[in-house]
Design brief:
By secondary structure, this protein is α/β, with parallel strands linked by helices. It has one domain (53-313): 3-Layer(aba) Sandwich (Deoxyhypusine Synthase), CATH 3.40.910. 47% of the residues lie in helices and 10% in strands. The chain has a six-stranded parallel β-sheet, with helices on both faces.
Length: 315
């Protein structure tokens, strides 16, 4: 086999142009700056580079501000991990100040919210408890929550309303830190979307499949009524739910649109510590209309949620 001959292409034949005249994506005016040591949170946010997530974060803060100013909903769809990393006080303050106008959570969120209110502690050691057959066997969550859900079903309430009412009317020592009780007291919609068999209270003696299904289904339609009002600048936030709430949100969207309601002008954002398929597709790519925006932020909840709250409160 003969050796290939050297290429006839030569660097001397390159066609070049001036860097000065080239169109570039990054220019000095979008660079970040080192914030002053005494800068407040607004100064810190202003110091972020106006690039990628830095730009998106500022845009989301502006959209959330416009939603509140315009009386549009800000729905917080959240996984239980948000409660487990100590963010309830921050979310409660956002609710009281009008930055969050509706809550949607999965069944695990109800358990952690109750445990904080009742005992001031939550999140058992699953590995240790599972091996001993004791995981999820704490008596009070099964008794109180299942009783509240059955009672709520008999009154025609949703699951979130029923549990929030029970905690708000209780003498639990830490009920002021309950998201559901706070929503009940503020008159904000709080919905719970249950997958049967995913939550420890489902195998306790007081569990009623009929009551769980009835109250959670009612909550789905309550959420639909809030999603309907997103049109015109509302915002849906998905924080820490990889499957349940992205799926529920997608179904709420299609239900509302099927009823002839336009949903084209609203925005969404996902906060999670890794990127998941369903939030990226259901909440961002598939959900927003032509006038909407979708954002995905990667970072630990215990850092990103306080940062967002501080940015909003400094606005």
């Amino acid at each position: 086999m003969s050796r290939p001959s050297p290429s006839r292409l030569r660097p001397s034949r390159l066609k070049t142009y001036s860097l000065i005249g080239r169109k570039s994506k990054v220019k000095l005016e979008v660079f970040g700056s080192a914030p002053d040591p005494g800068a407040d949170i607004a100064g810190f946010i202003d110091s972020l580079p106006d690039i990628l997530a830095g730009r998106d974060f500022r845009r989301l803060v502006a959209l959330l501000g416009a939603a509140r100013d315009g009386g549009r909903p800000v729905i917080l769809g959240m996984g239980a991990h948000v409660i487990k990393v100590g963010l309830s006080p921050i979310i409660i303050r956002l609710m009281k100040e009008g930055w969050v106008t509706a809550l949607a959570m999965n069944g695990a969120g109800v358990i952690h919210d109750f445990e904080i209110a009742y005992a001031g502690q939550t999140s058992e050691d699953v590995a240790v408890q599972l091996e001993a057959g004791a995981f999820g066997m704490a008596r009070e969550p099964g008794e109180y929550l299942n009783r509240a859900i059955r009672s709520g079903a008999s009154r025609g309430q949703g699951l979130g309303e029923a549990v929030g009412r029970m905690i708000a009317q209780s003498r639990f020592p830490h009920k002021s830190l309950s998201l559901l009780a706070t929503a009940h007291e503020l008159g904000l919609p709080a919905t719970v979307h249950v997958a049967i068999g995913t939550d420890t209270i489902h195998f306790h003696a007081g569990a009623s499949g009929a009551a769980l299904g009835q109250t959670s289904l009612r909550d789905f339609f309550v959420l639909c009524s809030v999603v309907e009002r997103l049109e015109g600048g509302g915002v849906y936030l998905n924080v820490g739910s990889a499957v349940i709430l992205p799926e529920v949100f997608l179904k709420a969207l299609t239900y509302v649109r099927n009823q002839g309601r336009p949903l084209r002008n609203f925005s969404t954002a996902v906060f999670d510590f890794i990127q998941h398929y369903r939030p990226a597709q259901n909440v961002i790519a598939r959900a927003v209309g032509k006038k909407g925006r979708g954002f995905y932020f990667i970072g630990h909840h215990e850092i990103m949620v306080p940062l967002l709250a501080a940015a909003l409160r400094s606005r």
